[in-house]
Amino acid sequence: MQIFILIPGCLHSIAMGFMVAFPAVLNPAILSPNSTDITATSAQASWIASTNGISGIFGFLIFSHIFQSFGRKMTGIGLNVILIVGWLTLSLANSITVLVFARAIQGLSIGGVFISSITICEYASPRRRGYFTTIKIISVGVGSLLCHSFAIFCTWRQIAAFCIIPTALAVIFILFWPESPSFLAMKGRFEDCEKAFTWLNGNSVESKRELKYLIKAQMRRHELIRKTEKISIVECFIKTLKNKEMQKACIISALLTLCIDSCGRYFLIAYITQILVEITGSKSIAIYCSIVSDLLLIFGLSISCIVIRKFKRRKLLFSLGTLTIAIMFIISIVAVLKSKYDILCQVPWLFPFVVLLHTFVAHIGLVPVSFAITAEVYPLEYKGICSCISGIVFTIFYALTLKLTPVMIEFIGVSGTYAVYALLVMFCLAILYFILPETKDKTLQEIEDEIRGIDRSDADKNLLPEKAISVDT
């Protein structure tokens, strides 16, 4: 039954892939002096591309609260409805102002990048959690590939109208979901939690054990809340911000998010055509390479579904992350040799090759593992505020990446741009090496206990008796 949860997550991600790649379709159309539709300056086009990252901050503030207070179903429906409104407005836009407004509406749903991943992690079993998250990321690549491919024979308005379909289907699927067992347990609805958990995971001994730990941990939390003096909302918020487990989870998430943004996850999807035109001087080569890049992205993520099940998260992150950094520096060196010394004129295919190799390697390890870990490390009690804080960090990085990448290419060239991003990835991995826990094949409760520094045997001793729990031991 868990596949029923994955399908709408993938449909939402396909629409998100269209959204991220859409500037690659929209910008050439509105920047063309021969356009009979809306025309824009390069500055206006960059604002259209990056506006959804800015509005995403407000989206996280809204949806993180809904996520923690009203549940995962309502949040999933809201995220997709917002996307539908954004795509509809975009397809009917008649001015630069409306284009900016439409992208801003879409940006409110950027919270789906984190929130839908966290949701899938809550619904999925530990063994499926990693590759379910990766399949969702593959869906973003599928959306990007479709967007770049449709650009060959469709207008940007037609593409925007098409994107309403997957988001509408996602809403229909979510209507038939049960609520997340983790959310129900957090709210003290233990009988409903047991029913939902059994519907999703069956009655195996392993599933019963996971359910027992989940319910017991939340019973203990509710018991502590009852014994604690009531404090104001402001005091509760300050106390939450001071919580070390919450801080550690947010720091890990922020560093992984910066890794994802800096390794080319988004700026390559949006600007790969511009990057290749800058170096090769051929628009046709750049367009076909962008399609090949999307195919390699999907292929790399498909391989990662297997790799992420076989190897530890830390091993994949640091080994393939280091390889990604090395390739980014190679791209920087090749770009310098090509632009300043024209040494590589006899091998014009070399630069596109290393750019495509970078896309492939990054999406085997660094990108999917970072997404998987980010969705796993939040303590249940603080998932709302953690997703909000991490989401704001994500939208800031995302908006800055889309806004600054073309500016960096213009002023420091492709070589300088790749060098800067490679140094950022190196910085993040160096810190993560010392603070990142291993999460593979562990339940979310086990990961939470590890972040809190709680030994599982000690936790068992301190948990409440099994009263009110119908799960067999």
TrEMBL record:
Its main location: membrane. Residues 1-440 form the Major facilitator superfamily (MFS) profile domain. The keyword Lipid biosynthesis does not apply. The chain crosses the membrane at residues 5-26, 46-67, 79-102, 108-125, 137-153, 159-177, 249-273, 285-309, 316-337, 349-373, 385-406, 418-436. GO terms for cellular component: membrane. It is a multi-pass membrane protein. One of its GO terms (molecular function) is transmembrane transporter activity. Keywords: Membrane, Transmembrane, Transmembrane helix. It is found in: Membrane. InterPro entries: MFS_dom, MFS_sugar_transport-like, MFS_trans_sf, MFS_Trehalose_Transporter. Pfam families: Sugar_tr (PF00083). Gene3D superfamilies: MFS general substrate transporter like domains. The keyword Membrane applies. This is Major facilitator superfamily (MFS) profile domain-containing protein. It comes from Parnassius mnemosyne.
